[in-house]
UniProtKB/TrEMBL annotation:
NCBIfam families: PRK09376.1, rho
Subunit note: Homohexamer. The homohexamer assembles into an open ring structure.
HAMAP family: Rho
Domain Rho RNA-BD: 119-192
Region described as Disordered: spans on this chain: 52-100
Organism: Caldisericum exile (strain DSM 21853 / NBRC 104410 / AZM16c01)
Gene3D superfamilies: Nucleic acid-binding proteins (2.40.50.140), P-loop containing nucleotide triphosphate hydrolases (3.40.50.300)
Similarity section: Belongs to the Rho family.
Protein name: Transcription termination factor Rho
Keyword set includes RNA-binding: yes
Keywords tagged on the record: ATP-binding, Helicase, Hydrolase, Nucleotide-binding, RNA-binding, Transcription, Transcription regulation, Transcription termination
């Protein structure tokens, strides 16, 4: 609370609305959400000054001697002073704990009290500043509960944007300091460190075609997952697109894929990015999938959309650098490109639909990060792309990304309108170099299956495949029924 009472009106003006709301809650300012920012700053400053004056009066009253304290024995006075010292220590500790309370942040961020130590431990997402210092974020957005990281610490441990860092922190020590500071670094991305963490740079790692398959099929799973395993296999390091018209089931399909990955591949760190989505869909995804869900809803400015995606990508890169397998599900690349288009500095050229060519760089950099590392980890990215929305811009965005992926799942609007689910267009769906993901015997059987359904119309082919899947308990059983084992 002392830090808040020392805030000036200029300090309040420099804060974001989110930070002002947080302080308003702490100082118990009524109806703070009804004010405009300039009005809120004035009311908040008045409330802080009032609390400051009240606190000062209490201290003066406490200093006045009473008859009771005058008549205390020497022993009683000593006990009183000891108790007062203990209370002051607890008050100071609780003040810092309240200041660092980030329990509403991401699951990655938390603080814990350490017995017999005056410091608190903080775990957060590191973001470097161009001027050399950095912050540990409670979540993917700046807040006044962030932890300051000094340049010497950054250089000593080799911290990079996206690192999940933990260590002891201390409250501001000097006049004018606004943030608690990180004292030392204990872990970086779960690795215990005592000095500089040696690791490769993501961009210098050697990419290769995916060779390790991500199996989506589980007992009693959604038929869509079995179809994908047969028609467009997914590998670690895949760069895939789910191409879909509105209401064709792309979000539902993404949710099913996420559930399957969590169940079948616990070694994969799964991140789900929801950009420009409805808040209720974000809540539903968090409740449905045991993974890190990062969101920037449609009521947020485009700057937030871009910030969330770029910081999440940096976090994924840091994990891949230490040999981890990471998967990002993005919903969706179309809305992300629209956000870049709104904020991009004009290049003087405009593509069809009003798309600035410079706006494509950011999303392409994001998708291009997906890769399987030779003798290392992998970064798998599966993103949704919208088509048939009636917007020329959306179609142009899809055409720009059409050739960048090495795997594509196409959802057909006509099949969805006929209530045929999953509405996957079998002929347009596929994976490049898929033979690297199947064994020789399995691939031979799958080619036979595709030849069988390839001669049919898309709707008829899908219905026939769904019927065959319902008659068997697993894909292996289906393939063996089509091509019997050789004797």
């Amino acid at each position: 609370m002392d830090e808040i009472l020392n805030l000036t009106e200029n300090d309040l003006n420099a804060m974001t609305a989110r930070e002002l709301y947080k302080i308003s809650q702490i100082v118990k300012l009524k109806n703070y959400s009804h004010y405009r920012k300039d009005e809120l700053v004035k009311e908040l400053y008045k409330q802080i000054q009032s609390l400051k004056q009240s606190s000062s009066n209490k201290r003066e009253t406490a200093k006045e001697p009473t008859k009771e304290t005058k008549t205390q024995t020497k022993r009683g006075t000593t006990e009183f002073q000891e108790q007062k010292t203990k209370e002051e220590k607890v008050e100071k500790q609780e003040s810092l704990q309240e200041f660092l309370d980030t329990s509403k942040g991401t699951p990655e961020t938390a603080y814990v009290r350490v017995d017999n130590e005056p410091q608190l431990y903080f775990k957060g997402l590191f973001e470097a500043h161009p001027d050399g210092y950095g912050f540990l974020r409670a979540n993917y957005f700046p807040s006044f509960t962030d932890i300051y990281v000094s340049p010497p610490l950054i250089r000593k441990f080799g911290l990079r944007t996206g690192d999940v860092v933990s260590g002891p922190v201390q409250r501001p020590q000097k006049e004018g300091e606004r943030y608690p500071a990180l004292v030392n670094v204990d872990t970086i991305n779960g690795i215990k460190v005592t000095g500089y963490l040696k690791r490769p740079i993501f961009e210098n790692l050697t990419p290769y075609y995916p060779t390790e398959r991500i199996i989506l099929e589980t007992p009693g799973c959604n038929i869509a997952l079995r179809v994908i395993d047969l028609i467009a296999p997914l590998g670690k390091g895949q760069r895939g697109l789910i191409v879909s018209a509105p209401k064709a089931g792309k979000t539902t399909l993404m949710k099913e894929i996420a559930k399957s990955v969590v169940k079948n591949h616990p070694e994969i760190y799964l991140m789900i990015l929801l950009i420009d989505e409805r808040p209720e869909e974000v809540t539903d995804m968090k409740n449905s999938v045991a993974a890190e869900v990062v969101s920037s809803t449609f009521d947020q400015p485009p700057e937030n959309h871009i910030r969330v995606v770029e910081l999440a990508l940096e976090k994924a890169k840091r994990l891949v650098e230490i040999g981890k397998d990471v998967m990002i599900l993005l919903d969706g690349i179309t809305r992300l490109t629209r956000a870049y288009n709104l904020l991009s500095s004009t290049s003087g050229k405009t593509l069809s639909g009003g798309l600035d060519p410079a706006a494509i760089r950011g999303p392409k950099k994001f998708l291009g990060a997906a890769r399987s590392i030779l003798n290392g980890g992998s970064l798998t990215i599966l993103a949704t792309a919208l088509i048939d929305t009636g917007s020329k811009l959306d179609q142009v965005i899809y055409e720009e990304f059409k050739g960048t992926g090495n795997m594509e799942i196409v959802l057909d609007r006509e099949l969805a309108e006929e209530r045929i689910f999953p509405a996957i267009d079998i002929k347009k769906t596929g994976t490049r170099r898929e033979e690297l993901l199947y064994n020789e015997d399995e691939y031979r059987r799958i080619l036979t299956l595709r030849k069988f359904i390839g001669s049919l119309e898309p709707g008829e082919a899908l219905e026939r495949l769904i019927e065959m899947l319902k008659q068997t308990r697993s894909n292996e059983e289906l393939l063996r029924s089509i091509v019997p084992d050789e004797r």
